[in-house]
Design goal:
The structure is a homotrimer of 302-residue chains. By secondary structure, chain A is of the alpha/beta class. Chain A is built from seven helices and 19 strands. The first copy, chain A, has an eight-stranded mixed sheet, sandwiched between helices. In chain A, strands 5-4-9-6-7-8 form a six-stranded antiparallel sheet, with no helix packed on it. The two termini of chain A are 29 Å apart.
Chain lengths: 302, 302, 302
């Protein structure tokens, strides 16, 4: 879990994903010599802060976002959310240099308030203070959404073949994500017409921690029935544990791909977490195992 | 009206449009031998569940969506709307195998509730129970929005020339429609820069049943004035009855085309209906005639 | 200010931008003979009502929208907003032929109401009555948003080099703007991957009239940190006065570019105004000077 812990220490709210990108680039360059297929990396000019990791001759796409929720400091210590940080808790936030501040959510005024008597620099950005731990069954940390998926993909990378993994930006900001750009690149260069969305979802009364990664049959978006049925059948055949999720709200990079100008199928497959977008998110270790198993199985078969 | 009745029996909520597509493909293959121009059909790989029906060398585009509103069954018999089914009525719904259930809208809780003591399979989809009838002046059925437009296009197909008809998907789901993908294909392959949106609108105090198909001057989107003026002038010249609609809300595939990355004009022309998205929609026969007349006139002249 | 006054007299709500386009085309054709680089104009077929003004071999993009807020007359004298006209005032509106009518905002019913006993033609469009004046420090007029930016660009045009200026449409209508189309054209033809958004923002407690044009670090969208830091550094180096804006709401053509399928950076730089979208908007003359200085400096260096 050392790799995951490192990923969860990176300050990367939407707009500052380059720090996760740099980490992944370094990791791949340092570790990929013995992988079954050494991936090519596409990033830099023409990619903004996005990153493509391409194994062999890709027939299947996976997308995982690199950004987290957070805050922009406005004038007068205003805390402007980046994405949707979980409300209703008191927590410590930090900026890119490690300076910290305590904040709480004011339920009357419906806004985040600074507790400390300090002045935040207008325009500075803040994310939850890193705080990583592992218990017998659970991993606890901010940003498991979505560093867990980044981690999972690096962990199965040594066995990945003929797959393109897109690390995306701005997913936490409704309808601002660069998923459409990445989907376009993947479609035009490798004719990728199906993308698995590696992301983290919610534990609910019906989707339970420990019962396996969730395959989402719908959220605000609805994957094409022909495609989702095929995926569910394949995962069933894999023998890996999984759950089916049916949600009325929530979206992902898949929402942007669905609305894109490309005929690309998508489906969300990811571990459920407790306290989504909160300062401590919790995921069951069995669901991480399940996610790893499902992606390993699907990526070489789709 | 036999053809329309058949179309209205198809279970095709957003995500399951393939059933309407298959019906249209079969119909065209069985009937087009004697048409003035036998259309080419584009569908399957690279098209998701969409369908293009191409007559001659197209200069004009028409778009009609194939999906209907409906419900996804969640866990615990939750009824999650697909699109916006009309609230405030008690009705029978059915799944793809014809199993039925009675539901009503709970105005207090603002949600749909199952009346029967049965268990809906999580992930299964439901649409209004087919119930088709024709009176002296009206046709009554669920899904007139938008099977009526599909029907209209098949009816005028024998005379259509140099037109591309796009049958689209996911229109009922706000901003998830594949209209942008289809517009892109039409623009890139045939330089189509104007698309008529064949869809069904609402009877209001000002747009009346029986007064002709409505040309919409605006809804949430606003077509370019130069284009809408030209279309209105042409329809006026055609001698076919019509009405002008000016709405502050509501959208269509045209909204997606307006927001697309392509310089394509669009305008909504369609019959108004009573009880939109309800279990029984009603359209005046004269407005169907008007719609047919307008499209027949415009498609060969634009 | 004669040129600005003329621009502010043009009736051009979203959908009728062709009148501003025609004005700019005429102006450029009449005045560009002695400019450092005579620009090429792209408009007409394939551009809807948009316009590209291309200097030399462009490496930098600027975008300024041509449309204003306004009203569509519905049936029964209903006033349907085009974009978001400022509420809470009584004002005179006029149509394209100069016919006028007095209107006020009904705070109880949350809608605009006609005061005069006349009948508005359904489908006709209305904008604020022109009313232009200049005081010692301020310019006052409707439509400073965004005719001021169009004016600014025409004023610095004689010195512009290797820049493409895009005059866009439908910006006032949320998510309907053609910014994505223009960004695509600029990217594909000239590999433009950075666009400055020339538009007008709001005077607030922290962004003051007279303190310089505002560089927006964020609104609903967040520009990429690497890019916004670079721009702020450059403007700092230019010696031109400026302010930093940090907003939680509001969008611009930049929002559409951020959500587009192209890897294009954007940042909003514009003068703040009092009474945005109102019948009289007010901008400080020093902020116009600042805006001119910043664009002149950046366009030749980016």
């Amino acid at each position: 879990m050392e790799l995951l812990e490192k990923l969860c220490q990176i300050h990367a709210p939407s707009g500052e994903e380059f720090r996760v990108r740099d980490f992944v680039v370094d990791y791949v360059n340092s570790n990929s010599a013995q992988w079954e297929q050494k991936p090519q990396l596409y990033y830099g000019d023409g990619y903004q802060d996005c990153l493509l990791m391409v194994f062999g001759e890709p027939r299947c796409g996976v997308m995982a976002h690199m950004d987290s929720v957070g805050f922009t400091a406005g004038y007068g210590n205003e805390l402007i959310p980046i994405g949707s940080p979980s409300t209703g808790e008191t927590a410590v936030i930090r900026d890119q240099r490690g300076k910290t501040a305590e904040v709480y959510y004011d339920n009357m005024d419906k806004k985040w308030v600074l507790k400390d008597d300090i002045n935040l620099q207008p325009g500075s950005t803040w994310t939850w203070q890193p705080d990583f731990s592992v218990t017998e069954h659970m991993v606890l940390s901010p940003f498991l959404d979505n560093r867990l998926s980044v981690h999972m993909l690096l962990k199965i990378a040594p066995q990945l073949k003929d797959t393109v993994v897109a690390f995306s930006t701005y997913e936490e900001m409704s309808q601002a994500g660069k998923a459409g750009f990445l989907a376009k690149r993947m479609y035009e260069q490798w004719q990728i017409d199906k993308i698995l969305i590696a992301d983290i979802t919610w534990v609910t009364d019906y989707v339970k921690a420990g019962s396996g990664a969730a395959i989402s049959l719908r959220d605000v978006g609805i994957p094409r029935k022909m495609f989702r049925d095929k995926i569910v059948d394949m995962v069933k055949a894999s023998g890996v544990s999984y759950q089916l999720e049916i949600e009325k709200s929530g979206g992902s990079d898949g929402t942007m791909i669905g609305a894109s100008d490309y005929p690309i199928d998508w489906i969300f497959i990811g571990a459920p977490e407790i306290n989504p977008h909160g300062s401590i998110e919790k995921v069951h270790l069995a669901d991480i195992e399940s996610m790893m198993g499902i992606y390993k199985y699907l990526c070489n078969r789709l």
